[in-house]
């Protein structure tokens, strides 16, 4: 209907404007890809964002339907990848040049790009781009709350029984054998008892092979093995194939096997992960995401996820699955009971969507109804059991869930039964859908439209597996069983492929297999790599089984070797990977220095060998290699690509090879032809619409004018060129003038090429959008290079469309000429360890633009990491320099020879510190001093500078309990100034973990005076100060102080000006506040100072920040404030600036830029260094860097465990602490981590109670405010990490604290413990601390743990007891009272004070004597008693206090219950 409306409107406009309007239309602005408004909104709010770029060209998959078996999927994969490689090349080049982060997806011909508005505009203007969409997340079709812990039951689950699957098992001996199912979900517990036996990766001997059987694109699972982070995926897989044994039947097809892709990170699924998972389903890969195997694709893929309506973003993926013969099952969604709620992608016509019903055969209440938001068709397609479905659950147990997520796998399992029972039906998706539809039990439910037989509530009806299998064209079936053995050793062979037509199986660990085949004569083939294959013909009986055993001869292996070199003129060796079709294992890699390679294959066979250079700009070389029974040498010369983009070459276009076709006549030019597939006119040469030449050419032209032919006209017409001989053309191109006016998917212009006289055509250009002239198109003709019989056709198809005009058609050649150049390559290693180093900069100082960084090569097992290469335009002897902090830079002269690879290896030196012992135990009397020594030695190859760092509390804090991990997606998460909603109930931000039971490490303190975020906090004199707050919240000028002694906040004088997300640092007892946004979104350049002693604010006169920022990283080191990165404007464009402010001189200086543009960067000063981690620009970072203020240089350190930004952060106990924040996929978390500079490692700390981001934190450790989707005032504290100083252990001294050791040198440091009250040891007991070492080396240094046992003096005694309080009801409980002990006769000059704990217990050592003991607590009557403390004796004094006020009787005022107010 839309196609009818569109031309009618346009035609009407033409009538009104007259024909003179046509040139105006022709001169319209160039095509601009459609940009989704959400992308623009995110860019406006954030400055940069991540978005998906979809390209216009789509692979032509129609022809693959004629292929059978694995050839079908292989061709689909080849078409998709080649289309993506060809059409994405230009955009990838631009993104690489601009150093933009991107991910390419071949299954949808799309790229995910991180960038700003300028980059977006550049991309949108490119002619190959179709549209730009936001990066979205789609929920797992969320079931109702799981009833977890359900025990295994010796019965068939009601849903499995409802669809009559057991009848299929019993009557047809069919349980889905030989069929592979997959799910894209939240993962699977692969070793669940009900699933482990069905996992394709189970080797049968207790080991597992996860390559090609499991995929986790975001590496959520910590090891390369299947895991499930939510339970959903384990549940859906159980419904497909689960078998708990002992009659515990939870799965529809318990004989099928399974594989899985974790496309859903947790309860959500990002479109990036779903696209990657969709690719993997079509062509599973190894653990490195390489070596795709379309032949290992599953038969069926279950998708219990989705969201929204009418969004075609996943259509290409579903189309690709269908083209490869993969049956796509989708949940309809849980958005009912309203009509028109069917979820995407289940609402696609190509998707088989499933609704849910319950055990009473009634529709599941929340099952989504149709119609489809895509085409208005009936949805769901069918319904299946979806309420109270019991299935497998992580942990080895079972759970009962409800939702269409549970319904879909019933259908997936049924398809497995169908395809196992009826092998001829396998991968025939249309016939399978028809069978499911026809055998469903009709349900008359037309309230959302449709008929009694097919409606938008139940679809075709209730699924019935038994009726479907019974009606399937299966004929009679029987079984073929057998064993495959090695003819030489007679040992069983596992992993052998057994096939008969499209039905196949794989032998297990014992070499056994079973096939279900139609009755009668069948050919069965057994084959394995190297063993070849053997076939036998068997007669399959209607009952029982026939045995077909195979013995396969072990292979005779031969070696193929040679060199891979540049084949276009330079001839230098190439680092490349080589794949051999059918050969198991990963690719073969050439030696990156010599280009040599070697591999073994079975003799007497022919192999397809594909060589891909690791350097950009080279073609993929594919050749057939015939191997006899002797070693063979195959040297491979790889030419540069069609576009001549390889380094060391220059290109130029030739003139027309065969002249220019100008179409100046009114008829078809000589040698050309026109082919029309409809009765309507096609290509003409007389301008029937009188449009004039709008192509950019002159004179006459060729045109297909669809709109001038009227409403009912349909065109499918070819303009075919003569044959051309291009045997001497290196890189032919088609060049022509064009005016393509296309605005819809069925209004299409294509350019195809043939080299076999028109028997087959290859598409090389596709236009289905606005490509208005005048324009000149340049189309590479890669399939035509070097071919003798080349023809080109212009094919136009339209259904009442517009037009396509072409003129000045030429074939030209692109030459590619070598320029003077050489390759330089080698490895950079650590001289101390010999290990390769990644990220080292290697530069040619004589040509500074010629530089690179070393990189990891994890997929190449033959070389270490630390490989580098670059193109050198210099020859002769030149210096090369390799550098990476904290290693010593190294330079060497290298002789560079043109047209060869010149090797230069570097071994970088660094110091390496060892410690003679890591545990010290001392015992000493109170008041004494003891010392010992620890030996430090530099075992490295360069000097090492050491700084000692002592700290207390590590043992206790790390061992304490944190809240359960909480992670929640916040779709509204933003880094912009107005980022979090304000004015809501603060309690709404508390996570479920906030109420976790138990004594948690983080304790709640009094909430801030107001809900606040983007504040900053410092600690001075034990009190916590919060300054500033989020824009528009009324807290921008706020100043509050928190006193831990009273647990109260107090308001202080307002700041001189409002600041949101400022930097605040305490220096010499004053608070210095820098940056932050003002009300208009500009960072504030002035510096304000608060003096707690005078309770006043002031502004430093004449002091202005040269690069003011908001949400910047902030640290204090050597008395100077360092501000790193931050937001340059209200949209928060990240920056790299580093400014240093000296409060004593009141001056700013600048430092070396941060390595990344960043904002909301947690930073802190520890010892003499600054450490920064995480932050965000377009995506959350995991990067960690250290800054040496004296050297003005940054050093890369170990990455964060997860990407985090906006984390409340501080320094305490010598650690940089990040308390939660915003992680990947806009997920707020309460996970708390800390970086330890001494061990150069991240460690987990107890999780906070409330998950927030953009809150404040101060040493102590105090966390104030923040938010998730709402703002909070809640605050909490993690105690035990000491005060703000890095050296928080006054009783521990390490001398010397700073030293430098030459290589091989050693030094004894003295460790001294002073056990006196002046050093913080006020009582006998056990004291623990540790000291570590920060060094300028790349290696961790273990900390030294110190434990001191302090004994009481001989003339001391101990007093202990319990203080209780008696309540009005007579009950007695502990009271945290103060116990003061005054020595009698001292006139009050000698006294001691101890505070009882919450249970009233106290204990105290003190000198012997007679003491007056006073026990007091507000609200209780004090008690006084004299108590004698004897030498070496423990005295006990228990006290019961009475309430000060007399106990009242009778009723209490309304609203007040015994002093506790309740909300009315």
Give a verbal description of the structure.
This protein has 1464 residues and is mainly beta. The chain folds into nine domains: 105 residues, Alpha-Beta Plaits (2-Layer Sandwich); 325 residues, Rossmann fold, CATH 3.40.50; 76 residues, Carboxypeptidase-like, regulatory domain (Immunoglobulin-like, Sandwich); 82 residues, Carboxypeptidase-like, regulatory domain (Immunoglobulin-like), CATH 2.60.40; 166 residues, Sandwich (Jelly Rolls), CATH 2.60.120; 87 residues, Immunoglobulin-like (Sandwich); 103 residues, Sandwich (Immunoglobulin-like); 323 residues, Kelch-type beta propeller (Neuraminidase, 6 Propeller); and more. The protein is 10% helix and 37% strand. It has 14 helices and 96 strands. The strands form 23 sheets. A seven-stranded parallel β-sheet has the order 9-10-8-12-13-14-15, with helices on both faces. Strands 1-5-2-4-3 form a five-stranded mixed β-sheet, with helices on both faces. Strand 66 and strand 67 form a beta hairpin. Helix 7 packs parallel to helix 13, helix 9 packs parallel to helix 10 and helix 12 packs across helix 13. The protein is globular and about 125 Å long. The relative contact order is 0.06. The N terminus and C terminus are likely disordered.
């Amino acid at each position: 209907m839309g196609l009818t409306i569109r031309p009618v409107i346009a035609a009407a406009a033409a009538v009104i404007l007259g024909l003179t309007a046509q040139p105006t239309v022709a001169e319209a602005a160039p095509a601009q890809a459609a940009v989704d408004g959400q992308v623009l909104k995110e860019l406006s709010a954030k400055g940069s964002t991540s978005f998906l770029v979809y390209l216009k060209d789509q692979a032509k998959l129609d022809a693959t339907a004629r292929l059978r078996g694995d050839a079908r999927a292989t061709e689909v994969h080849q078409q998709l990848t080649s289309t993506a490689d060809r059409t994405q090349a230009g955009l990838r080049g631009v993104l690489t040049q601009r150093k933009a982060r991107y991910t390419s997806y071949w299954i949808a011909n799309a790229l995910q790009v991180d960038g700003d508005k300028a980059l977006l505009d550049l991309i949108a203007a490119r002619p190959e781009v179709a549209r730009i969409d936001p990066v979205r997340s789609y929920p797992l079709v969320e079931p109702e709350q799981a009833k977890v812990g359900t025990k295994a039951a010796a019965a068939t689950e009601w849903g499995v029984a409802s669809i009559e699957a057991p009848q299929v098992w019993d009557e047809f001996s069919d349980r889905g054998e030989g069929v592979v199912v997959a799910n894209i979900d939240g993962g699977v517990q692969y070793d669940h008892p009900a699933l482990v036996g069905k996992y394709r990766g189970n080797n049968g001997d207790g080991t597992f092979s996860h390559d090609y059987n499991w995929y986790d694109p975001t590496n959520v699972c910590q090891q390369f093995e299947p895991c499930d982070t939510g339970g959903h995926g384990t549940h859906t897989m159980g419904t497909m194939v689960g078998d708990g044994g002992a009659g515990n039947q939870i799965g529809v097809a318990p004989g099928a096997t399974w594989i899985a892709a974790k496309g859903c990170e947790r309860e959500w699924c990002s479109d990036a992960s779903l696209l990657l998972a969709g690719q993997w389903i079509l062509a599973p890969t190894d653990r490195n995401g390489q070596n795709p195997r379309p032949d290992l694709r599953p038969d069926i893929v279950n998708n219990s996820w989705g969201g929204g309506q009418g969004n075609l973003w996943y259509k290409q993926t579903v189309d690709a699955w269908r083209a490869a013969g993969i049956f796509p099952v989708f949940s309809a969604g849980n958005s009912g009971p309203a009509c028109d709620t069917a979820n995407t992608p289940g609402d696609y016509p190509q998707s088989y969507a499933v609704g849910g019903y319950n055990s009473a055969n009634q529709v599941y209440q929340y099952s989504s109804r149709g119609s489809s938001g895509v085409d208005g068709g009936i949805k769901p397609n069918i319904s299946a059991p979806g309420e109270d479905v019991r299935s497998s659950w992580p942990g080895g147990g079972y759970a009962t869930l409800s939702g269409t997520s549970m319904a879909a796998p019933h259908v997936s399992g049924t398809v497995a039964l169908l395809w196992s029972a009826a092998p001829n039906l396998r991968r025939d998706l249309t016939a399978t859908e028809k069978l499911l539809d026809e055998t469903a039990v009709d349900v008359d439910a037309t309230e959302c439209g449709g008929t009694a037989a097919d409606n938008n509530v139940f679809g075709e009806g209730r699924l019935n597996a038994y009726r479907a299998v019974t009606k399937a064209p299966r004929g009679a079936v029987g079984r073929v069983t057998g064993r495959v053995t090695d003819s030489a050793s007679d040992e069983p062979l596992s992993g052998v492929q057994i096939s008969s037509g499209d039905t196949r199986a794989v032998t297990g660990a014992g070499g056994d297999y079973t096939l279900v085949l139609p009755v009668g004569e069948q050919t069965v083939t057994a084959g394995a790599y190297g063993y070849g294959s053997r076939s036998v013909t068997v007669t399959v009986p209607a009952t029982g089984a026939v045995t077909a055993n195979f013995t396969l001869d072990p292979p005779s292996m031969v070696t193929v070797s040679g060199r891979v070199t540049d084949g276009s003129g330079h001839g230098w060796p190439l680092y490349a990977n080589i794949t051999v079709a059918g050969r198991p294992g990963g690719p073969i890699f050439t030696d990156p220095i010599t280009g040599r390679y070697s591999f073994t294959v079975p003799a007497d066979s022919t192999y397809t060998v594909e060589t891909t250079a690791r350097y950009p700009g080279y073609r993929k070389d594919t050749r057939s290699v015939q191997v006899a029974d002797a070693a063979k040498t195959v040297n491979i010369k790889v030419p540069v690509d069609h576009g001549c983009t390889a380094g060391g070459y220059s290109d130029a276009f030739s003139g027309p090879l065969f002249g220019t076709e100008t179409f100046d006549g009114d008829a078809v030019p000589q040698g050309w032809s026109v082919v029309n597939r409809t009765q309507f006119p096609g290509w003409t040469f007389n301008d029937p619409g009188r449009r004039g030449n709008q192509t950019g050419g002159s004179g006459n032209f060729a045109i297909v004018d669809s709109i001038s032919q009227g409403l009912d006209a349909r065109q499918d017409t070819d303009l075919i060129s003569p044959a051309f001989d291009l045997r001497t053309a290196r890189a032919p191109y088609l060049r022509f003038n064009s005016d393509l006016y296309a605005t819809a998917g069925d209004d299409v212009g294509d350019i195809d090429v043939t080299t076999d006289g028109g028997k087959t055509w290859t598409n090389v250009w596709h236009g289905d959008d606005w490509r208005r002239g005048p324009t000149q198109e340049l189309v590479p003709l890669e399939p035509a290079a070097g071919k003798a019989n080349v023809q080109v056709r212009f094919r136009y198809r339209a259904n009442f469309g517009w037009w396509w005009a072409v003129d000045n058609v030429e074939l030209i050649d692109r030459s590619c000429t070598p320029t003077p150049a050489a390759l330089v390559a080698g490895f950079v290693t650590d001289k101390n360890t010999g290990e390769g180093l990644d990220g080292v900069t290697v530069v040619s100082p004589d040509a500074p633009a010629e530089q690179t960084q070393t990189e990891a090569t994890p997929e190449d097992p033959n070389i270490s990491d630390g490989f580098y290469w670059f193109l050198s335009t210099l020859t002769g002897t030149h210096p090369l320099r390799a550098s990476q902090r904290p290693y010593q830079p190294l330079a060497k002269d290298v002789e560079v020879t043109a047209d060869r690879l010149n090797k230069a290896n570097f071994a970088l030196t660094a110091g390496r510190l060892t410690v003679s012992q890591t545990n010290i135990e001392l015992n000493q009397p109170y008041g004494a001093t003891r010392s010992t020594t620890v030996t430090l030695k530099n075992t490295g190859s360069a000097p090492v500078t050491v700084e000692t760092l002592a700290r207390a509390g590590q043992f206790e804090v790390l061992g304490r309990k944190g809240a359960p991990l909480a992670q929640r997606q916040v779709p509204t998460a933003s880094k912009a100034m107005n980022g979090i909603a304000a004015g809501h109930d603060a309690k709404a931000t508390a996570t479920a973990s906030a109420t976790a039971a138990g004594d948690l490490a983080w304790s709640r303190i009094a909430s801030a005076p107001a809900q606040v975020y983007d504040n900053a906090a410092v600690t001075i004199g034990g009190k916590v100060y919060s300054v500033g707050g989020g824009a528009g919240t009324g807290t921008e000028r706020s100043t509050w102080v928190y006193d831990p002694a009273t647990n109260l906040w107090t308001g202080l004088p307002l700041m001189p000006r409002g600041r949101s997300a400022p930097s605040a640092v305490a220096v010499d007892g004053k608070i210095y506040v820098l940056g932050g946004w003002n009300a208009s979104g500009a960072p504030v350049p002035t510096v304000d100072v608060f003096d707690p002693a005078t309770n006043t604010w002031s502004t430093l006169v004449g002091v202005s920040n040269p690069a003011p920022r908001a949400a910047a990283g902030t640290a204090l080191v050597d008395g100077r404030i360092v501000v790193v990165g931050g937001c340059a404007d209200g949209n928060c464009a990240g920056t790299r600036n580093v400014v240093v402010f000296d409060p004593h001189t009141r001056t700013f200086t600048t430092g070396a830029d941060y390595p990344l543009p960043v904002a909301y960067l947690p930073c802190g000063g520890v010892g003499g260094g600054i450490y920064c981690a995480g932050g965000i620009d377009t995506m959350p970072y995991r990067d960690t860097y250290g800054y040496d203020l004296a050297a003005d240089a940054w050093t890369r350190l170990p990455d964060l465990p997860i990407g985090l930004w906006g984390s409340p952060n501080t320094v305490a106990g010598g650690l940089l602490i990040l308390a939660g924040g915003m992680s990947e996929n806009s997920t707020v978390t309460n996970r708390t981590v800390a970086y330890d500079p001494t061990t150069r490692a991240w460690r987990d700390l107890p999780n906070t109670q409330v998950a927030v981001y953009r809150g404040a934190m101060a040493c102590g450790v105090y966390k104030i405010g923040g938010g998730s989707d709402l703002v909070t005032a809640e605050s909490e504290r993690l105690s035990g990490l000491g005060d703000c100083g890095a050296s928080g252990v006054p009783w521990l001294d390490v001398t010397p604290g700073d030293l430098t050791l030459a290589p091989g040198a050693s030094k004894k440091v003295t460790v001294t413990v002073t056990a006196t009250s002046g050093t913080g040891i006020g009582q006998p007991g056990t004291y623990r601390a540790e000291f570590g070492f920060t060094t300028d080396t790349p290696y961790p240094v273990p900390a030294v743990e110190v434990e001191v046992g302090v004994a009481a003096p001989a003339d001391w005694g101990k007093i202990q007891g319990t203080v209780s309080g008696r309540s009005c009801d007579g009950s007695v409980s502990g009271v945290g009272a103060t116990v003061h002990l005054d020595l009698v006769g001292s006139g009050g000059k000698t006294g001691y004070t101890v505070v009882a704990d919450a249970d009233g217990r106290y204990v105290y050592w003190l000198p012997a004597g007679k003491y007056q003991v006073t026990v007091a607590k507000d609200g209780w009557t004090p008690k006084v008693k004299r108590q004698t403390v004897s030498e070496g004796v423990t005295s006990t004094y228990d006290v019961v206090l009475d309430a000060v006020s007399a106990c009242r009787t009778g009723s209490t005022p309304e609203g007040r219950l015994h002093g506790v107010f309740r909300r009315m």
